[in-house]
Backbone:
């Protein structure tokens, strides 16, 4: 705040200047021009973070976490195996993507598989399976208990070789049969109809005397076969399913056909190449987004997406101007839980859709079908991996801003999104590379959202932070090129905030690490304010006698600089000061009282650093504006900026002239 007192000299009117800046609650703002900036905001927060009661400190350093990959990492996910947490990595092994498992930063265990080496892979775990998706390869899964990789491949259509009649002489009734092959994800096309005649309708067969023996050829990869029966040409209904160990079955007429399930004419055994997946915890139902704008859903408790087995798909905005790219379990405006789907549009636009599953009862058969409706006033995410569900809201970048569904529940049951990036929209968000924003990734940690983004780059090269605990304050920018961000809770209960930088697995931590360096390399931090003025219009000149910067627990080398705007409108350097750590030794070992002399071995020499340092600058000249910055760029540097105090006097009758 400003404390300005009226004073008079013999020559001209003067106002005392005593500006206190000791909390920056608004954090980083770039949309407000210099000289109009709130005193509790900052114009630069490079590699800084907000701590305590809205003061700033250089961010935590990055250190290597655990064993490092020797092959390029092209995907990551997490699984729970035998009550222990593991990371699941995809690596490029000579042009083939292969899966590896790692626990608590230990050695990598090869699982295997064969995947594209050009697409980023992720996974979701459901019912002991970790489903692998990358938008290119057909769906597959890892059996978590055994590390076995199961890849869905298209099953061939079975070929029936014979239907043989036993008993029931005559040829007045025709019986029609078809057979399908199934795997864990779906069912093949039904075999060509094979028929046989008899003298009795099926309901009149004598058990043990009248029966039909069906034989068909084995289908590679099948886990079961399903027989279909019909008494009318062109219509066959589900009759019985048997395991893949046999390719023959006797129809004794004792099992009733299912009138609600016809023999399939489509093949659902290949596994869809999903771009995004979600597992609904309440019933272990798996959802997937395909590139043809279809939302697939499995039968609850399975990974079977066949519409003939309780799964299915629904087109959303088919042939429209948006592309589906994200699905998650969320809520509508009333708070009702449901499935929410995002679709990317153009120029930062898009849509959100809600999907509910309705039921229709026909006789004693209940049919479940998806009902899709569009949420209101939405923009879809441009970066599925950078979409975060936190505080009962979805947060995500659209390419032109950042959105949140953090609206109150409302009676019409829809969601509307809010723009949460107004303070950075004009000068920062437009620099994000829209073409490559799908590579963005985000994670929530300690009530902060960390977004790794491609800013003027083809790859992620900066991390932006949205601090939810400080009223959505933004902190920009951490110069970390993170391909991935994640939290890993090791099996000792410690949480590690990890980043994949280059091909190194690193962890943000202050514990037992050298401050102000990442993986052994120093970086530059800068906090700055642009610019202090001496009246509400920002035109009168002032003479600043002293600017004080109070640093808590300073280490290393920290430099303060000021820049002023002169009466002619020219910007010039006006002063600087620096802090270099000074330490005091505790002494040269211990006095040996027996021989009245010091030991020969000095032992460990402890030192004590300063807990407080004051930097003082005396800016030169009459100034209309004054900007300040603190810079550190050496390993071991650290500090907390506690306060900046600016003192002097303003001259009413002297104004800025350009």
Residues:
């Amino acid at each position: 705040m400003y404390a300005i007192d009226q004073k008079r000299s013999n020559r001209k009117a003067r106002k005392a200047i005593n500006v206190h800046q000791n909390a920056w609650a608004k954090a980083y703002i770039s949309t407000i021009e210099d000289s109009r900036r709130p005193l509790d905001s900052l114009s630069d927060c490079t590699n800084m973070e907000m701590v305590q009661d809205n003061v700033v400190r250089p961010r935590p350093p990055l250190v290597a976490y655990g064993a490092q990959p020797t092959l390029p990492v092209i995907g990551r996910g997490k699984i729970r195996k035998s009550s222990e947490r593991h990371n699941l990595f995809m690596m490029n092994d000579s042009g083939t993507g292969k899966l590896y498992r790692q626990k608590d930063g230990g050695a990598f265990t090869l699982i295997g598989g064969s995947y594209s080496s050009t697409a980023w892979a992720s996974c979701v775990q459901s019912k002991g399976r970790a489903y692998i998706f990358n938008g290119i390869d057909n769906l597959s899964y890892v059996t978590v208990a055994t590390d076995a990789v199961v890849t869905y491949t298209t099953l061939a259509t079975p070929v029936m070789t014979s239907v043989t009649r036993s008993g029931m002489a005559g040829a007045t009734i025709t019986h029609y049969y078809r057979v399908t092959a199934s795997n864990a994800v779906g069912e093949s096309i039904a075999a060509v109809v094979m028929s046989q005649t008899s003298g009795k309708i099926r309901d009149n067969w004598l058990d043990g005397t009248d029966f039909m023996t069906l034989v068909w050829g084995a289908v590679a990869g099948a886990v079961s076969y399903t027989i279909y029966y019909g008494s009318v040409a062109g219509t066959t209904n589900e009759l019985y399913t048997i395991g893949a160990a046999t390719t023959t079955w006797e129809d004794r007429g004792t099992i009733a056909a299912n009138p609600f399930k016809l023999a399939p004419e489509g093949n659902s055994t290949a596994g869809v190449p999903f771009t995004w997946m979600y597992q609904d915890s309440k019933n272990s139902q798996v959802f997937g987004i395909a590139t043809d704008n279809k939302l697939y859903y499995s039968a609850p408790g399975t990974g079977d997406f066949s519409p003939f087995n309780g799964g299915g798909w629904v087109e959303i905005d088919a042939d429209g101007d948006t592309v589906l790219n994200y699905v998650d379990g969320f809520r509508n405006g009333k708070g009702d839980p449901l499935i929410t789907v995002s679709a990317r549009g153009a120029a930062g636009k898009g849509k959100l859709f809600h999907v509910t599953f309705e039921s229709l009862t026909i006789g004693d058969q209940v049919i479940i079908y998806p009902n899709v409706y569009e949420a209101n006033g939405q923009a879809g995410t441009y970066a599925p991996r950078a979409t975060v569900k936190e505080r009962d809201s979805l947060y995500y970048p659209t390419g032109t801003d950042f959105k949140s569904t953090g609206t109150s529940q409302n009676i019409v049951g829809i969601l509307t999104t809010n723009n949460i990036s107004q303070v950075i929209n004009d000068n920062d968000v437009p620099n994000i590379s829209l073409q490559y924003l799908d590579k963005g990734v985000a994670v929530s940690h300690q009530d902060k959202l960390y977004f790794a983004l491609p800013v003027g780059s083809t790859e992620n090269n900066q991390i932006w932070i949205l601090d939810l605990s400080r009223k959505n304050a933004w902190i920009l920018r951490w110069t970390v090129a993170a391909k991935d961000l994640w939290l890993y809770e090791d099996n000792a209960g410690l949480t590690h905030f990890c980043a994949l930088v280059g091909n190194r697995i690193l962890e943000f931590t202050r514990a037992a690490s050298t401050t102000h360096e990442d993986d052994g390399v120093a970086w530059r931090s800068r906090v700055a304010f642009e610019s202090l003025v001496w009246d509400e219009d920002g035109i009168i000149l002032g003479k600043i006698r002293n600017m004080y910067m109070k640093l808590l627990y300073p280490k290393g080398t920290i430099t303060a600089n000021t820049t002023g705007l002169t009466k002619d409108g020219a910007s010039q350097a006006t002063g600087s000061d620096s802090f270099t750590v000074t330490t005091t030794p505790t002494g040269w070992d211990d006095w040996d009282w027996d021989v009245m002399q010091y030991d020969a071995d000095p032992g460990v020499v402890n030192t004590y650093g300063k807990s407080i340092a004051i930097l003082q600058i005396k800016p030169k000249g009459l100034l209309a504006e004054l900007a300040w910055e603190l810079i550190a760029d050496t390993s071991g540097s650290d500090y907390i900026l506690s306060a900046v105090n600016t003192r002097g006097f303003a001259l009413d009758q002297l104004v800025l002239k350009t």
Remarks:
- The chain is about 0% helix and 50% strand.
